[in-house]
C-alpha cells in the first residue's frame, strides 16, 4: 500500500516538474494537434485550452525553426480566418507572434484589434519555434467565431519556406511580409475537450516537445507540400525573354546579317514571354500586402518595360512593312534599334530590384548581376566589332548594283561583305527573281 502511494506521488511530481506528456493530457482540458511537416527536423504542434466561463483562449504553437514561419488559423479555408503567425525576431533568438486576419487566399494582414500576448515558454529551443500565448476575447471576432460546443471545429495550419534561395524571415514587426507557405493542411479539434480549467494552467505546465500524438484533434485531409510556382514562372519567363532571347536575337543579327526572319521570330517569342511574365506579375501583386498598391519601383518600372517591349516589337514590324513598300530606310528602324538597347538595360535593373524585393539571398542577386552584365558586355562588344569589321572591309567592291555604304533597311542585313546575303531578301522585297541580279552566285 505504501509502495503504491509512493508511486502515485512520484508520478504526480514528475508531471509537475517535467510537464505533461501524451498520456498526461488525455484527461485534461486540452486539445492537441500534432503532425510532421516532413522536414525531418521536428513536429508541428498546436494545442488549445479555453478556460470555463471565459472569452479568452490559451494556446501553444510550435514548429521547426527551419521554416520561415509557423501558423495556425481558424476555419476550413483562409478567407475570414483568424490567424496566429510566429517567426524569428530580428536577432534570431526570440519569437514574434503576429495576429492576422485573412480576407482571401492571399497574405493575411496584421490586425491590431486582436489582443494577444506571449507567455512563459515562448522562444526558440533546440531548433524549434515555440509559443505559449493568451488571446483576450478571441472566441469571437468581427469576421467569425469559435464554436465551443463543436467536437469538430475546423482549423488550418501552414509553414513558410524552409530552405532554398530565400532568406529566412527575422523581424520584430507584427506586419512583416511573409512568403507563400511550403506546407499546409487542415485539422479538426474537439472544443468541448479543450474547454475547462482556470487561466490556462494545465496548458502552460505541459511540455509539448514530448507530445508526439494528437489528442482531441485529427487531420482533416492530406497534408499539401507547396511551392511558390507563380513567382518561379514570373522570374523564368522574364529572364528568358530579357536575358536570353532578346540579347540572343541581337547577337544573331550581328553574326548573321541576313537573319531578319529569324530575328523577327526570336523577338516575337521573347515579346510573348515578356507579356506572360508581366501578366503573372500583375496577378502576383494581388497576393501580397507589399505589392497590392502597385507603387513599388519594381512594379512601375516592370510595367513600363513590358509596355516598351510591345511598342518596340510593333516599331520593328512597321519598319519592315514600310521598307517593303518604299525600299528606303525609315526612322522607325533607328528608334527600334536604340529602344532595344535601353530596354535591355532597364530590364536587367528591374530584375535586380525584383530579386532584392522578394527576399532572395544575396548570392542569388550577385549571380544574376554578373550573368546579366556579361550578356550586356557581349552584345556591346559584338556591336562594336561588327561596325569595326564592316569599316575594315570598305575597300572591297560592292556585290551587284547596290553600294557598300548603303544599308537599305537601316539594319545590319544586306551589307556587301562576306557575311551578308542581300539577294536573299532583295528578291523577297521587290519580287525580282534572284537570277536576274549580277554576281548572284557570289552571294552566301
From TrEMBL:
Residues 194-391 form the Cytochrome b561 domain. The chain crosses the membrane at residues 231-256, 268-288, 300-318, 339-359, 365-385. SMART domains: B561, DoH. It comes from the Eukaryota. Keywords: Electron transport, Membrane, Signal, Transmembrane, Transmembrane helix, Transport. It is found in: Membrane. GO terms for cellular component: membrane. Residues 1-19 form the signal peptide. PROSITE patterns: CYTOCHROME_B561, DOMON. Its main location: membrane. Residues 42-160 form the DOMON domain. PANTHER family: CYTOCHROME B561 DOMAIN-CONTAINING PROTEIN-RELATED (PTHR47797:SF1), DEHYDROGENASE, PUTATIVE (AFU_ORTHOLOGUE AFUA_8G05805)-RELATED (PTHR47797). This is DOMON domain-containing protein. The lineage of its organism: Eukaryota, Fungi, Dikarya, Ascomycota, Pezizomycotina.
